[in-house]
Amino acid sequence: MRHVAVLGATKGMGRSVARALVERGDAVVVMGRSLDEAERSVQDLLARGVPGSKVVAVECDLEKPEGFRRALDEAAQALGTLDTVVVTAGIFATQDQLEEDPALAAKVLTVDFSNTVLFCEEARKLLLGRGGGTLCVFSSVAGDRGRKPVVLYGAAKAGLSAYLEGLDHKFRAQGLVTVCVKPGFVKTGMTEGLKPPPFAGDPDDVARVVVQAIDDGTPVVYAPGVWRAVMTAIRAMPRFVMRRVGF
Ligand SMILES: NC(=O)c1ccc[n+]([C@@H]2O[C@H](COP(=O)([O-])OP(=O)(O)OC[C@H]3O[C@@H](n4cnc5c(N)ncnc54)[C@H](OP(=O)(O)O)[C@@H]3O)[C@@H](O)[C@H]2O)c1
């Protein structure tokens, strides 16, 4: 049985991951920027969990790094221990919106890169302090290549993926297992209104892949799995070909 904090469990893929964990009997802390929203998610999860499930809410806002350590300590205290931390929280805006609005661009870069890394640093210290654990963080296929539709969002995710790879190399031998999740296009609130490409995924399918990756300690996982093959082809594509096809 795992003791898991999920930052981002109130919506989308985070909600599906939290559900999958609770349904198999893990203890879960729903971390969210709104305590009311997190508490509503807890009620929903308790209704689905095995009898006696432990599910609690803790406030944590990715825009407020000064609260990260307190939130993680609170989560560990609520469950008695914390062996797994999952970060699905993140924000998205289109490239056009980000080019037009520097304040929004700063927010996306800060939330999706700098503050996510700072949160992971606190989680790393907490997990290593108890002898190890698993840190599972949602990056994106958008970080695998620089592309016209996601220049800024993709750059934040590329930085996050690189950080997670470094963390895994540095700390796995000490017991910190890092899992970097790279979803392709998944139908959630984040992608509402965007035209789904072929292979658009479902949050519950992603959750199944992610929970397995957490249990196996897989360092990088594409979800849904078809995106591994898609991204192998895209990563191998020469830059002049990308330019020619307008990718
Ligand atoms: N959907 C896709 O196609 C796709 C593809 C690749 C990568 N990803 C990545 O996968 C992750 C999950 O995406 P999703 O589609 O499940 O997104 P989503 O449905 O929009 O959910 C995002 C979650 O992040 C939380 N969040 C946003 N800002 C926050 C903040 N400042 N502090 C704390 N929590 C905050 C939201 O909380 P509230 O309930 O408070 O809003 C919500 O729980 C993200 O990192 C995203 O970049 C998504």
List keywords for this structure.
globular; binds NADP nicotinamide-adenine-dinucleotide phosphate; alpha/beta; 9 helices; 247 residues; 51% helix; 7-stranded parallel β-sheet; Rossmann fold
Can you describe this structure?
This protein is α/β, with parallel strands linked by helices and 247 residues long. It has a single domain (3-245), classed as Rossmann fold (3-Layer(aba) Sandwich), CATH 3.40.50. Helix content is 51%, strand content 15%. The protein contains nine helices and seven strands; from the N terminus they run E-H-E-H-E-H-E-H-H-E-H-E-H-E-H-H. Strands 3-2-1-4-5-6-7 form a seven-stranded parallel beta sheet, with helices on both faces. Helix 1 (12-23) links the parallel strand 1 and strand 2. The chain is globular and about 55 Å long. The mean pLDDT is 96. The structure holds NADP nicotinamide-adenine-dinucleotide phosphate. NADP nicotinamide-adenine-dinucleotide phosphate is lined by residues 8, 10-14, 32-34, 37, 61-63, 88-92, 111, 138, 140, 183, 185-186, 188-191.
End-to-end CA span: 44 Å
What quaternary form is this?
Answer: single chain
Spell out the CATH superfamily. Answer: NAD(P)-binding Rossmann-like Domain
> What is the general shape?
globular
- The portion of residues assigned to helices is 40-55%
Question: Are any ligands bound, and if so which?
Answer: NADP nicotinamide-adenine-dinucleotide phosphate
Radius of gyration: 18 Å
The unreliable regions are none
Briefly note the CATH topology name: Rossmann fold
Q: Which sheet architecture does the biggest sheet show?
A: 7 strands, parallel
Strand content: 15-25%
Number of helical elements: 9
How many strand elements? 7
Order of helices and strands: EHEHEHEHHEHEHEHH
Number of domains: 1
- Widest sheet: strand ordering: 3-2-1-4-5-6-7
Report mean pLDDT, rounded to a whole number.
Answer: 96
